[in-house]
Amino acid sequence: MLVLMESMGIPVPAETCIITASLYCLKTHHLAIEGVALAAIAGAIIGDNFGYLIGRHFGLPLLEKYGARVGLTSERLILGQYLFRHHGSAIVFLGRFVSVVRVFVAILAGACDMRWERFMLFNAMGGTVWAGGWALGTYLLGRKISQVSGPTGIAIGVLTAVCLIGTGMFLKKNEKRLTQQALTEAKSLPQAAE
User: Average pLDDT in the 35-49 region?
Assistant: First the structure.
């Protein structure tokens, strides 16, 4: 349930829930790890689809109305749509592995009009690798998890921070160019029928 809620856009500790359930399986044998992994995967995929629908139906109007208050100008909204149109698959798949991004990526994909079929494919792949990986990885590492999680957790945290900083620097440096490309492309797209 927590995995589903996080995937819908509610910031809850889904990874902690998966790890705890997997360790519970290992220690007590009251649950099957396969069931925990499948429940986590299903929660991730279903929750993201709810998040996508929320973003699709309510996201863009809210972003257009209130986005400027947090620096999300109309040009940046067009840039977001451009990035989801051209790199949405990677954003959806890789966003699953970054906790802050994971909470909002489905809503943003819906708000930016990413095609549902493409979203569903990369959401399912990302959710399967992420949730299944945490469940089975935790279970298989078992008692070694405390030895591995310290250095590995630090390394993943540093790598994530470097990637986020690098992405931020790239977007800051290239925002004008990308925005111009997005505006040019937006003008050339056929207008949606009203």
Answer: 89
pLDDT digits (tens, 9 = 90+) for 20-29: 888 888 888 8
| Residue 190 pLDDT greater than 70, yes or no | no
How far is residue 167's CA from residue 139's CA, in Å, rounded to a whole number? 33
Q: How far apart are CA 44 and CA 1, in angstroms?
A: 9
Q: Which residues contact 174 (CB under 8 A, 6 or more apart)?
A: none
**pLDDT at residue 146 is higher than 70:** no
Q: Mean of the per-residue pLDDT values for the chain?
A: 81
**What is the identity of the amino acid at 166?**
G
d(CA 52, CA 104): 9
Q: pTM for this one? A: 0.69
The whole-angstrom separation of Cα 162 and Cα 171 is: 14
How deeply is 193 buried, as exposed, middle or buried, from its count of CB atoms within 10 A (0-12, 13-18, 19+)? Answer: exposed
Taking the chain, what is the end-to-end CA distance rounded to the nearest angstrom?
Answer: 38
Alpha helices in 11-144 (DSSP H): 14-28, 33-54, 60-66, 74-95, 99-111, 116-127, 133-141
Distance CA 144, CA 77 (A): 45
